[in-house]
Specification:
The protein is mostly beta strands. Helices cover 9% and strands 51% of the residues. The chain contains three helices and 33 strands. Strands 1, 2, 3, 6, 7, 10, 11, 12, 13, 14 and 15 form an eleven-stranded antiparallel sheet that branches. Strands 19-20-16-32-31-33 form a six-stranded mixed sheet. A five-stranded mixed sheet has the order 18-17-21-22-30. The longest helix has 19 residues.
Length: 414
């Protein structure tokens, strides 16, 4: 069988599997976090049973500017929240509420425009276009979500479409949660039933709102920074200074472990294993160089493979260099306050899907520790891997970092 035929056979196989998933009477998704929950509907109906997402899927909540969770923009220094997407499973959730942000009754329409033209005078009378409606009306509803976590934190925003499964005593129900509902023609808003609340009936995963991070044998100055990025979703989370000179507070991880990076004395250190697979490093560097990206100056610092070998993480020092051409300087960004071109810089983690057979990588997600704006003549910040910061030990809601924190219960890395 040729490679092309193998690909066709694989596509047909996965299409068949996808069709089976839509057949009524399926069982609960395997390897998914299963909780006990009650699902409330707008028509008063309530269903209780075991609830789960599709295996491998997560909730994605887009938090608008008015979201309660704030992070510090490292360019402007202001607290902002522009379209940040947080990912999570059912495990850290206590309750999810849905409420209409806007409801409308709509009807199909189109613009009509009539023009009167006088052939004798060659003058045209242009009548403004008007909306012409036809057909039956239909209801339209936009839904927002409020997620309450077991840590007591609440996030509000728009939930991306996701499928959930609820197994009751009678059967397994499949529901698609959408942020936008459209009813059939001729129906009313009351006829468009939606889930108003999903309330967990068990304790679930216990998580802390704040994690204390203590760096053993190290003292930080007033200009030093630390930043955490969650391991699963690669989300930068608020990381603040504590009262102690060796302590930071990491907030809103929602139960995820996290990677750590530190800016100390003008240098950047990232907790990362010092040992590396040279062949994998070379493969990753080749794919990064071939990746067409906004950042055209990319330096690979580290690489590591997931435990199952299906994913690869790369640590990259990124900078957008502008290039002078016959048409002027291009590639940078114009800063209004400075009145000149500037160059963005980031220290990021890229996650790749790894095809071990064909030795190919496919970029799937990104997370950033630090980002700043520099002038073209400014040097690129020095970023180095720190085995010291990779040595961590967790005790309840406190994470100890550094070799001095090592003991028999030591865990290396997140």
């Amino acid at each position: 069988m040729t490679n092309q035929n193998k690909r066709i056979a694989l596509i047909v196989k996965w299409q068949a599997i996808s069709i089976l998933l839509l057949v009524p009477g399926w069982s609960m998704p395997a390897q998914a976090a299963i909780r006990k929950a009650a699902v409330y509907f707008s028509d008063g109906k309530v269903l209780t049973g075991r609830i789960a997402l599709t295996s491998g899927r997560k909730f994605k909540l887009n938090i608008p500017k008015a979201g309660k969770l704030k992070t510090t923009d490292m360019v402007t220094g202001k607290d902002v929240q522009y379209g940040k997407v947080r990912q999570f499973t059912f495990e850290p959730v206590s309750e999810i509420r849905f409420y209409p942000s806007r409801e409308e009754i709509r009807q199909n329409w189109k613009f009509t425009e009539t023009t009167k033209y006088d052939e004798k005078t060659a003058v045209a009378d242009y009548t403004p276009a008007k909306k012409a409606f036809w057909g039956q009306t239909y209801p339209l509803r936009y839904l927002h979500s409020a997620v309450i976590f077991s840590s007591g934190e609440t996030l509000e925003g728009q939930l991306y479409s996701v499928t959930i499964y609820l197994e009751t005593e009678e059967k397994t129900h499949r529901f698609v949660l959408r942020s936008k509902q459209r009813g059939e023609k001729g129906t009313k808003l009351e006829d468009l039933v939606y889930i108003t609340k999903i309330k967990m009936l068990d304790e679930g995963k216990e998580i802390a709102a704040n994690i204390t991070v203590k760096f053993a044998g190290m003292t930080f100055g007033p200009n030093d920074l630390a930043q955490a990025v969650t391991c699963d979703s690669l989300t930068p989370v608020p990381t603040e200074r504590s009262d102690g000179p060796d302590t930071f507070i990491v907030k809103s991880t929602f139960g995820e472990d996290f990677y750590l990076a530190v800016r100390k004395d003008g240098k950047y250190f990232i907790g990362w294993p010092a040992d590396r697979d040279e062949k994998l490093f070379s493969l990753a560097r080749d794919h990064i160089e071939r990746q067409r990206d906004f950042y055209n100056d990319k330096k690979l610092l580290g690489v590591m493979k997931s435990k199952d070998g299906r994913e690869v993480l790369t640590l990259i020092n990124l900078r957008r260099r502008f290039a002078p051409t016959n048409f002027g300087d291009i590639g940078g960004e114009w800063d209004r306050e400075l009145g000149r071109i500037v160059e963005p810089w980031r220290l990021s983690i890229w996650r790749w899907k790894y095809d071990r057979v064909n030795r190919e990588l496919l970029l799937s997600s990104r997370g950033t520790f630090f980002r700043f704006i520099f002038l073209p003549e400014d040097p690129t910040p020095e970023a180095v891997i720190s085995e010291e910061f990779w040595q961590t030990r967790r005790d309840n809601d406190t994470v100890y970092v550094g070799r001095e924190a090592k003991n028999k219960n030591m865990r290396v890395g997140p």
